[in-house]
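Before a colleague's protein record goes any further, I have to sign it off. My question to you is simply how this chain folds and whether the tokens agree. I do not need a full report, just your reasoning and any doubts. This is what I was given:
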Amino acid sequence: MKILLVEDDKTIASGLEYSLQQEGYWTVLCHDAASARKVLAEDIDHFTLCLFDLQLPDGTGYELCKMVKERRDIPVIFLTVIDDEVNVVMGLDMGADDYITKPFRVRELLSRIKSVLRRYQKLSHAGAVIDIDNVRIHTLEGKVYKNGAEISLTALEYRLLLIFGNHVGQVLTRNQLLEQIWDVAGDFVNDNTLTVYIKRLREKLEDNPEQPALIKTVRGLGYKVGD
């Protein structure tokens, strides 16, 4: 497994690179956004995961994440000193799969890397096409269509819909959804955040969001998609 590490602090970068290599990962290290963009443009197909420092001397991890997600559906983890909820949710909307705040223990980062890779492995074994009424999910392309027209979803919206798609006919509690959406950094994807994302999905996918027929609320239990 090959990891692209982009970190401008050379001391931190050197320590992380050594630790990743000790775990058996191949690594490519960049210290700025320009060199990272060049590596991604030339070699993105050979990476398994990306670790991006959020604040770089010539750009941001957000920009690199967007570049990656437009080309391939591989996991991205942000490394940052910023820990407020606004930036976390922004990172999720840009497509980040996890978010770890400095200072952190290397073992914690390694655990999160393994967790994200397991989640991707599970998704890759799901059906290539999932139909829910008039909504179709193309899992290999990461695209969603309603009545044949493509619907633009953020990374977290798509992840939430895919969970529903893999559990058609089942009632999922809010806790089950939270665990599957964000199985590491649950402090930031909390109950209120889940409500916001359910509302967003309904606004994009329901014929009448005020009377949802696709993502149904099961009072006192949770949510259900399909019969």
User: Anything to note?
Assistant: Confidence is low (pLDDT under 50) at residues 183-187. The first strand starts at residue 2 and ends at 6. Helices lie at 10-22, 33-43, 61-71, 85-94, 106-124, 155-165, 174-181, 191-205. The first helix runs from residue 10 to 22.
